[in-house]
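User: What would this chain look like folded?
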Amino acid sequence: MIVVWKRMGWLAILVGIIGPVLTLVIVDTFLGEGSYSSSLTFQTIGVMIGSLLIYKVGMWLNDPARLEIRREGTDEVLGVRPEHTFCLVPFQFWAFIFPILCFFLQ
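Assistant: Here's the prediction, encoded as structure tokens.
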């Protein structure tokens, strides 16, 4: 498989992994070793946190105002930068793909 991304699109996977890893650390710290891996509820919460992070970061990165190239001191738009994409899918849409991938990889 060829991995294709534009600009910071490769961060979609890394940002998505933050949620489950953070949940794993917190749950195993407070509830004991192995609590996260034995509970589907905590795993689902971790994936949902990861998806929310992907969506928020993607919306911030692909904000139309951030993608426009403007001339200093004027409102004239000189051009538009390409979106942040991973595998040809815009960054924020990976928030919907990430849980599906996690479900099938589990």
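Helices lie at 11-31, 35-38, 40-61, 64-67, 94-105. If you want, I can go into more detail on any region.
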